[in-house]
Each structure stands twice: as structure tokens, then as C-alpha cells.
Amino acid sequence: MNKSLINKKKIEKLVRQILIELGENPDREISFNEETDSIIAKDIQFYSMCEHHMLPFFGKIHIAYVPSGKVFGISKLARLVEKYSRRLQIQERLTKEIADEIMRMGVKGVMVVAEGEHLCMRMRGVKNSGMITTVANRGIVAQTDAREHLLALIYNPRSQAMLKQI
Fold this sequence. Notes:
Blueprint: H1 8-21, E1 39-50, E2 56-66, H2 74-85, E3 88-89, H3 91-104, E4 109-118, H4 119-123, E5 131-139, H5 144-155, H6 157-165
Parallel strand pairs: 1-3
Antiparallel strand pairs: 1-2, 2-4, 4-5
């Protein structure tokens, strides 16, 4: 498509009119500043390669954080998981690196839980298919009450059922 033929002013006017027809105020300020106690992104898939054995490990990562006014788009958290998992890695470091980077983004606290199945464990040696879980807590989430609360939300079947109803 020839970009010089695109009439941006006309598109802006049409999108504005669509927003008005939907009952939205197109002049309102859009902000990702929200007041909330905690945000949890669960079951973010990851795939990585064990740096010790050069074999894959994969699983799910759960990220819970306490914002300090600013919230992140969910895709930002998934991209962060991708950034650190797409290299030779060990699960313990993967968990810590994700937590450390989220803390550098200015949150009050973060918990990262990684659950991984390691083919190095399944294919060689003990040939066991156990899951490995690693946890990194930073900021106010390192406090016992906050940590226990977030873990309960991540793993409690009732909270999972409530989230599915929303």
C-alpha cells in the first residue's frame, strides 16, 4: 500500500466519530496510572535451554507485582519473560532476572514464580519428570504477609475459579 495515499487527518476524524458514537470521550486523557493493590499475570509460557546440559526446559511463569501508580501492559510482562528465556539459561537465574528488571521499572514489590520441566532431568541421569519451582521476591513482596497473600492468589483453586468467572 502506498503510504502517501493515506489521509491521516481523515482517519483521525473517523476514529474520533466512532469513539463518540460508542459513548466514549475522545478528549479524555489516557493513562496507565491506576491505583490497585496487586496485579497477577499467570501461566506465561516460556521455553529455554539449560546452560549446563544444552537441553530444553520449559514451563510457566507467574508474575505478581504491586504497582506504584503505573501499571504495565500484559504483553510487556510476556516480552520480559521472552527476553530472558530465549538464551542459554538456568531457571534460578531466569526467575531472579525477571524480578530484578520489574523492580527497576519502579514497582513497590514483585514475586516471580517459575515452574519448569527440565529435559536434562527427564532424559539423562535420574530420568524423572518432576517440575522445578523457583521463586524470587523483591520489595514489599518479600514481607511474609504480602508473599503469602500473592501465593494464595496464584495457587488457590478458588481464586482461579473466581478469575475465570470475571
